[in-house]
Amino acid sequence: MPSHKSNLDAHAISEFLASRRSTRDFIKDKPVPQEIIDQLLVDAMTAPSWSNTRPFKIAVASGDVRDRISKEFLNRWDALSVGRHGNLLAKIKLITSRYGLPTSNRKMAKPYVAELKPRAHRIGAELYKVLGVERGNREARDAEWAKNYEFFGAPTELFIYIHKSLGIWSASDAGLMMENLMLSAHAHGLGTCAQGAVAIWDDVVRKEFEVSSHYRLLTGLAIGYPTDAPVNSFGANRLDPAEITAKEK
Ligand SMILES: Cc1cc2nc3c(=O)[nH]c(=O)nc-3n(C[C@H](O)[C@H](O)[C@H](O)COP(=O)(O)O)c2cc1C
């Protein structure tokens, strides 16, 4: 039985936490060994959970399954982009065929509310600067976004489903679980990137995995070994805790 106490140095832990960052360029032909994936899943299960219910399912996509899903995502992204930015005929084709339109999480494209918008804009602007994408260059931005559908080259993509019955607590539990998994991956020298972008075509994942209709897709999560690309050194800004603590009345 593992001890409930830790001898790890608190300062070292803070440093470790601060050193995790999202990876957006992976070595595609370097698979993650199955025993490491197994260990990440074991570590993920040590997170707290609502009544210990663990109201989530994880679909682990590697190899051919991963490639098939990615290929279909890229085709749909192409169809969606052509429909959105093409002429009237292209728009009509998108609407009538529906191929490329989101089949799940349709509300994801909603604009950010005023309180959160500056934060989202800041990360977008800073990230695109590192990627060399100029403001207003929609095509270049779309090309970067499309990399989500190749999982940034990651050899393994996880699809995280949450049980509908527990509402927001399912998402909270999944988030806690994912962070444990991401930190364990980080400790193994792996990179990760949570990917809400892939949650809009749930049917593609369900074609490959048995997931009951009681579950809905929350997000994807790319895992693999990071390349030396500059985007992987990008450090997202960190909010001052004062910005997220509620003031006493
Ligand atoms: C639920 C969730 C979904 C995310 N979706 C995406 C995504 O689709 N594409 C992407 O590049 N990053 C995505 N991210 C990564 C965030 O942009 C990133 O965590 C944030 O900017 C902070 O940077 P850091 O992870 O490097 O600390 C997502 C993060 C979370 C938690």
Describe the structure.
The chain is α+β, with helices and mostly antiparallel strands. The chain has one domain: NADH Oxidase, CATH 3.40.109.10. 41% of the residues lie in helices and 12% in strands. It has a four-stranded antiparallel beta sheet. It binds flavin mononucleotide. The site of flavin mononucleotide has 12 residues, from strand 3.
Main features:
single chain; 249 residues; alpha+beta; NADH Oxidase; 4-stranded antiparallel sheet; 8 helices; globular; binds flavin mononucleotide
Helix content: 40-55%
Are any ligands bound, and if so which? flavin mononucleotide
Q: Helices and strands: which structural class? A: alpha+beta
Provide the gyration radius in Å: 19 Å
CATH fold call:
NADH Oxidase
Task: Give a brief description.
This protein has 249 residues and is of the alpha+beta class. It has helices at 10-19, 34-44, 63-85, 88-97, 117-131, 138-146, 168-187, 202-206, and strands at 56-62, 156-163, 191-195, 215-224.
List the helices and strands and how they pair.
Layout: H1 10-19, H2 34-44, E1 56-62, H3 63-85, H4 88-97, H5 117-131, H6 138-146, E2 156-163, H7 168-187, E3 191-195, H8 202-206, E4 215-224
Antiparallel strand pairs: 1-2, 2-4, 3-4
Bound molecules: flavin mononucleotide (FMN).
